[in-house]
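Posting for a labmate who doesn't have an account.
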Amino acid sequence: MTAIIQTNNLTKHFAQDIVIQNVTMTIQKGEIYGFLGPNGSGKTTVMKMLLNLLKPTSGEIFIQGQSVQATSYNYLKNIGNLIEYPILYEEQSALKNLELHCMYMGEQHISNIPEVLVLVGLKDVGAKKVKSYSLGMRQRLAIAKAIVTKPDILILDEPINGLDPIGIKEMRELLLQLKQQGMTILISSHIVAEIESIADTIGILKDGQLIEEVSMKALTKKNATSLEIIVNDGNEAKQLLEEVFSLSIHTQDDTLYIEHFSGKPSTIVKFLVEHKIEVEKVESHHQTLEQYFVDRIEGGF
C-alpha cells in the first residue's frame, strides 16, 4: 500500500505547553482513517498542522510523498476539509456558497455542484439562504464545500455534529461512497460506533500522544469473540472441547465460557451434539471499538 499522509515525530508546543508530542502516523491511500481521542487530546491540532493552519514545533509531515514546509500551500488543492466551525456566507444560498468556493478553487469545478447537493441531501433547499439553515444543514453544506472539487484527500473534524440519526446514516453512506471513488479520508468523531462502522484504520490520541494505531481487521482479530454455552453436562463438555480444540475454557455449573474464540460457534455446537452433549443456549460476545477505546484511554499507555 501507498502512504498518502505520513507524520514523523510531529510535535507542537504552545508557550510551555506540549500539546502534541512525537506523533508518528501513517494513512494509506484509499482508506478511511478514524482519529479517536477525548476532548483536548489534540486531534484538531494535528489536523490543522496537516493543513498548514498551524506550524509544527518539530517533526515532519509528508502529503502524497511531498514534504510539507511552512511555505507549502499548493498541495492543499488536493485536500478538502472541515475543521471546527464552517465559514459560510449567511445571506447567500447553498448553491451560491458552492459557486463562490469553486470560483476561488477553480471554476471548472462548478459543474460538480448539482451532484454534490444531491449527495449531501441539500438538493431541495439549495436555493434557500444559509441563515435559515439548521445546524445539521450547515454541516451538510460544509461537507459539500469540502468535496465539490473532488479532492484526493478529505480531512473531517467531527463532521456528524448536529446531524440527526438519519443524517448520520446518510453521512456514513456518503463517506463509504467517496472511499469507493478512491478518496482517502481522515475523520475524527466522538461517536465511536460510527468510526467502527466505516474505518479501515484507527489512531488513538491521548494527551497529545498517539498511543495506538491499528487496522480494524487486526483489532477485530485481537478482540476475538468469546462464547457462552449452556449445556447439560459442563464438565464432560469442557473436557471434550479442551482435548480436541485446545481451547481455554472455564465453567460455572453447566455454563462454559470460552475466551478469544476465532472460529464458528456452529462448529462447537455441532461437535458437542455429535458427542451426545445437549446444548441449551449459545451466546457470542464481541468487544466493541467503543469498549476498546475506553479501556485504552483509562488504562494508559
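Reply:
Got it, the C-alpha cells are right above this. The two ends are 28 Å apart (CA to CA).
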